[in-house]
Structures are given as C-alpha cells and as structure tokens.
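Researcher: Here's my situation. A collaborator sent me these components and asked whether they could plausibly form a single complex. I don't have experimental data yet, so a predicted model of the whole assembly would be a useful starting point for our discussion.
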Amino acid sequence: MPNIDIDEANSIALSRIVESEPVLVDVVPASQAIEGLRDGMLLHAGPPIDWDRMCGPMQGAIVGALRYEGWAKTEAEALDQASGGQIAFHPAHHFSAVGPMTGITSPSMPVFVVENRRFGNRAYCTINEGLGRVLRYGANDDAAIEKLRWMQNTLAPALGEAVRHSGGIELRPIMAQALTMSDEMHQRNVAATSLFFRALAPHLARTVASSADYGSIVDFLVANDQFFLNPAMAAAKCTLDNAANVEGSSLVYTMCRNGTDFGIRVSGLGDRWFTATSNMPQGLYFPGYSIADSNPDLGDSAILETFGVGAFAMAGSPAVAGFLGAGTFRDALNYSREMGEITVGRNPNMAVPNLDFQGVPCGVDVRKVVETDIAPVINTGIAHKEPGIGQIGAGIVRAPMECFHQALEALAERLAGG
Amino acid sequence: MPNIDIDEANSIALSRIVESEPVLVDVVPASQAIEGLRDGMLLHAGPPIDWDRMCGPMQGAIVGALRYEGWAKTEAEALDQASGGQIAFHPAHHFSAVGPMTGITSPSMPVFVVENRRFGNRAYCTINEGLGRVLRYGANDDAAIEKLRWMQNTLAPALGEAVRHSGGIELRPIMAQALTMSDEMHQRNVAATSLFFRALAPHLARTVASSADYGSIVDFLVANDQFFLNPAMAAAKCTLDNAANVEGSSLVYTMCRNGTDFGIRVSGLGDRWFTATSNMPQGLYFPGYSIADSNPDLGDSAILETFGVGAFAMAGSPAVAGFLGAGTFRDALNYSREMGEITVGRNPNMAVPNLDFQGVPCGVDVRKVVETDIAPVINTGIAHKEPGIGQIGAGIVRAPMECFHQALEALAERLAGG
C-alpha cells in the first residue's frame, strides 16, 4: 500500500469533521433508534470489556439498568444475570451511540437522535439525568430509577414532540455560539444548555404547554447546566464517525474510557481498538472525598476532546479551569496551545474569541502525539470507585501514551503493506 | 467643609455599589410605578434638554410616543404639541428611571420594577423592543407603535404575572454569571438574556402557559439577544443611586447622553449636572450607512459603564470587541486595564475570568480622569441622526473630558467651602 500521503489523508478526515452539520431530529426510546439493541443487551462507555473487569460504577449502573428495565427484580438477581452471562455487553461506540461516564444504555431509555445533514448518518445519546445520585455515575437506588422512569414516560415524549415540531434543531450553531460564551462543552455547558432551551422553548410552548406536566418538564430542563452535554456528545459522535476509514489517515476518531481501559481508534485503521489502562483524574473533590475514592477515568464524553472542544477549547473557558483545579487564565490558554501541537489542524466553525477567533485544535494526530510526547488532555467528572455513590469531583486527565504508540506501530505496518 | 477624606468618601460610595442587591419584582405601566409621571409628560435619556436642542431620533421617538399614547392623532399634531410647550420633558434619571438610546418613556409603557433589597430603593426601565425600526432609536411608524401596544397589552401583563409568581428574580447573580459567559452587558447580552429566560420560564409555565398568546410571548422573549439590556440598566440605576450624595466623594454615579449633550453627576455634588457636547461613536455600520449618517452618542445605557460593565468589562467579552470594531482580544483586555486606572476600585461581585476573576473596574473617579487624561470608554449602539430610521451600527465612544474638568473644579470649590 505505497504512495499514501498521510497528510493528505488527514486533511480529508479533518474536512469531514469541519463540514459536518449535526441536527437534533428526535427523542425516542433507544430500542426504536438503535438498530440491533434488543432485550437482554446493554451498551456501555469505552472500549469492549467483560463484566469481571468492569469498574465499580459501571457494575452499579448495570444493576440499576436491569432493575429499571424490569429484567431483574432485586440487586441480587441483577448481579446474577450480569455476572452469569445472561446479559450481552457492547460498547455504545459499536452502535453509533455514546454515553457519559458509565454510559449504560438500555432499550427503554430515551435517546437524542442526531442526524448529520451533510453526510446522512445518525448518532445517539441518552438524556442527562442531572447531578446527584444518578445512574451514569453508578448510582442505582430507587430514586435514581424513579427519575429514569419519569424521563422515559413524561420528559422524553414531550421533548420528542417539541423537537419534531421544530423540524430539527441545528446543533453546530449552538455549539459555536456557546464556545464564544465560555463553555468548553465538556465540564461547562451553561451557555449551550441555555441556548438550547431558548431554541426549544417556542416549540414546547406549542406542543406541550397545555400538559399537566409542563411545569415539571420546564423545571427539569432549566435546572441542570450540564443538560447540553449529551446532545453535544451525540453531535460529536455523528461528526467523527465520518472521519473514520480514510485510508492512511493517522487522525484519532475515537477516544473513550470504560473506567478500566482507555481506548482509541484511528481513521486509517478502521474499527480496531488500541487500549491501555485508564489514568486517574487530577482535580477538585466534593467535601469528604479524595483521590483515594476515585475511579479511573471513565466515559465516552472524551468524544468532545476528540472533536476539539472540552480541554482542547479551555482557552475560551477560563472559568472551567478554576472549576477543575486546572489553574488560571494563562493555564487555560496554554492547554489549547499545547493541544494545537498534536492536532491535524483547526476547526474554523468552532472559533474561540480568546484565541482571536482561531478555530479549536481539531483531530488528534497519532504521529504528533508520539513525536512530541504530549498526550491529549481531557476535562472530566470524577466518579466514586464503588458502585452506588456517584460523582465526587471533577478534574483533568491525560490519555495514556501507550495507545498512541501501539496505533502508530500498526499504522506503520499497514502502510508498509504489513 | 474641611477634613473631608475624598478616598474614604469614595470607599463608602463604592461599597454601596458592591453591596447592592437588585431584584426584579414586577412589570407594570410606568404611570403606576413612577411617582410623578403624569399625562402630558415624557421622560427622556440623558441630562435635561429642551425640544429645540433635541437630536433627530429623540424628536422622532417623542412623535411616536405622543401617537402611541393617543395624545396626538397625527405626526403634525404631535410636532405641534411637542414644540409648542404642551408636553413636559424630563430626564428619566430625575425619576429613578433610565432608558436606552432616546429613552422616551410615556405613562402607558410598561416598565421593569427593580428593587434594591440591600437599600430599599427602586428603579425602572422600559422593555426592550428588539431590533429594527423601534421607538428607542427614533422610529415612529405604525409598526413600531403597534409593537408597543402588543407589549403593553399582551407581553407586559404576562411578564408581570410570572415575575410576581417568582417572588422576585435576583439580577446580581444573573449579571455575575453572564460576565463569566462573555457578556459585557451593554452591547452583548446573549448570556444574560438566556439565563434570565431560564429563570423566568418555570414561572411563565405556571402562570401564562394556558394563554392563547403564550407562543408569541415566548417567541418575543427568545428572539432578542439584547432583551436583558433593560433589566441590567434598571439594576445598575437601582445600585448607583445609593452611591449618590456621599459628602466629599469624587465618584461618578451618573453618565448619560441625550444625543446632544453628555452629562455626568458626582456623588459629592448631589444632583448637579456637568455637561458637554456628546462625542461621535466610532464603530461598524450596517450596510449602506456611514459615520456621516450617525447621531452623536445617545442614551442612558452608559449607566452600565458607570456601574463597571460594558466597555469597562471588555476583557471578558472579546467577541463584543469584534462586533464593535474595537479590535482584538488584546485590545479587549487593554480597555479593561485602562479603565482600572480611572476607577475608585473593583467590584468583587462582578468578576471576569479573563482577568483571573478580578472584579470589574468600578466607580469612575473624577480626579483620576483628569490626572490621567483618560476618558471613560462606552460601548454603544449608533442611531441614524434623522428621526424615523433607527439603528445603523454599533461602536465605542469616549465621554467628553470637559464634564470631568468642570466637576473637579466644582468639587474643589465645595471642599474649600466655596
């Protein structure tokens, strides 16, 4: 396979990211949207993993999901099913989906349906449950499950109706505008959430304002500054899937974590995973918790850094740097500058005012990561390592270099015709 | 009047700004809120001025207001009344009110009622009409008047009901949060408008969602990124009025423009106005217009710079610098640094992430303006100089130095017992 110009291949992959037009077109149950998702099967965050190697919060979320679906009546029954091979576990990434933290997605859970109007593909992500003891962080008590049922039966049908009434809500303009409003869209989504609510409100007003549940639906939508995280993740997934499978490209189109392993996939290497042990985030903890309680890095939300926002866009979000214990204004600028050294280029559709409207650094290049020894940086929530507890902080983490070394070797072999 | 410590007086005045807690408590007709506002009387922006010296857009807005109130049937009749001494014109500032651009406020126009929960006083501002041919820029055609009637009869009662249901919407937290989201809150209010709508929405949902007009009310509230300008102005007025009348203080508690004159008032000099000719803004023009079409600097909205935001907070809003033709990210930082040289101190409740969470420069000190020869800078909309046309651009402008020289002389005389 000679004569492949890696730079040219990377340009093609990057252009597919830049040109993508993700549009939220519906909210429906996962079983209806995601082909192949059937009873007895759950999707999870990160690269493939068996039950035995799963971290505490992921196992906790699975127990919760089995009870939520009614496949298990009790925690004990759920544990039996999950550990006994009765449940099939698959990466969400294998089904055009992504999930924050544990990423557990079961058939009855509603998902955002995001369509790429430029390329025609779709991607999916569950609805953000808010803060506190929530399933995505491994909580699985009755209150967490009750909230999921309310989301399924009350919230999601209303959202779906409003989104369909809108004819589709374009996400790229919201994301671009939010980047000019100090969101980095991973750990800070207050602007995007507010803009999204403004975009949705006229349609909610015309479709569900007469419902008895309207007040509680509005309460839920305005209460959680991170609400937009999940549509943003689906938009990034729907974008990056088009950067896959460009022959010869060293651009990373997936970075994700299952809480045990960190995994990447590279455009020119198809669906092959390169994995290494997940690092421990460094950050700020809620009162009473410390790094000793932390689970290693977890979740598909690193799709945002893969897309060029999150820690890559920290320059535009000095407020998030403080929130994550990642330093000052100057440090925030430096993270974005550093990530510019390991990316294929910039995304002019995602411009940062603090960088004089330069686009975000976009498309991690496996070659540059290895050459510079600079690992991608990721802004992340921190989960307690035991199941059932939930979020205990937020911070930053580096992708493990080993994945990139493996991938570069594999790319060299493939380009050599190996 | 010896032994007055100006620095100490300024500290007192500044602390009253910092400690203020403006809360939106109601939306009602101006005649109901503003004591002394009666039929045959109009409030206007800026220092006192007679009809003959008023600029084109202010005269245009007055013609529109007289037709809107039904005091005149035709433009000709309105011009007769206004020029014939039948209408009393007063600065809004004399009635605890402020108005953007022409600032024309008539008894039937609804106003935001903002209460200072720390000091008990109230301030008022009309509701932002949106962009295009609107009264505050001097437009006065049937469409402009029809929109005002819809605001009076449909929008304002709904807003009032929702605000009363909320028990009051605290504005300081919204303003502080918006400053961390790249608003400077004079020419950029997209974050504050979005946050305000999020705060109001649960109450609208419970008070007016069943109304047939609910859809159009929501449309209006989400359509205009500058909607929050007017509550912000009322909040700043409600705050700064408490910084007035501190004996010996050289802090400027009013800066405003009527389109002909720029006026300031100084804490230690009571209600006395110091005026000079309004400067011409420098900025970017809508297609087809140029500085030759511009009206001189106009409006009470410089209350925002008086409070420490607007151009004073440009460091946090590099996006507005581009919008105003005021330069790059570096220039935005420099405006805030420069204003720090002429202010009494900083407002820690209004922190800017791009300044490592330093508070905005707050409280223009007449002495420092004269010593440094640095005039306060203001972000502003630009009105066409002829009545009936409206906004033609946006830019920045400097306050005329002459006001500050006059005021410093008067302060010296007063402190000398003159």
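Model: Some features of this prediction you could bring to your collaborator: Residues 263 and 275 of chain B are 4 Å apart (CA to CA). DSSP finds 14 helices and 16 strands in chain B.
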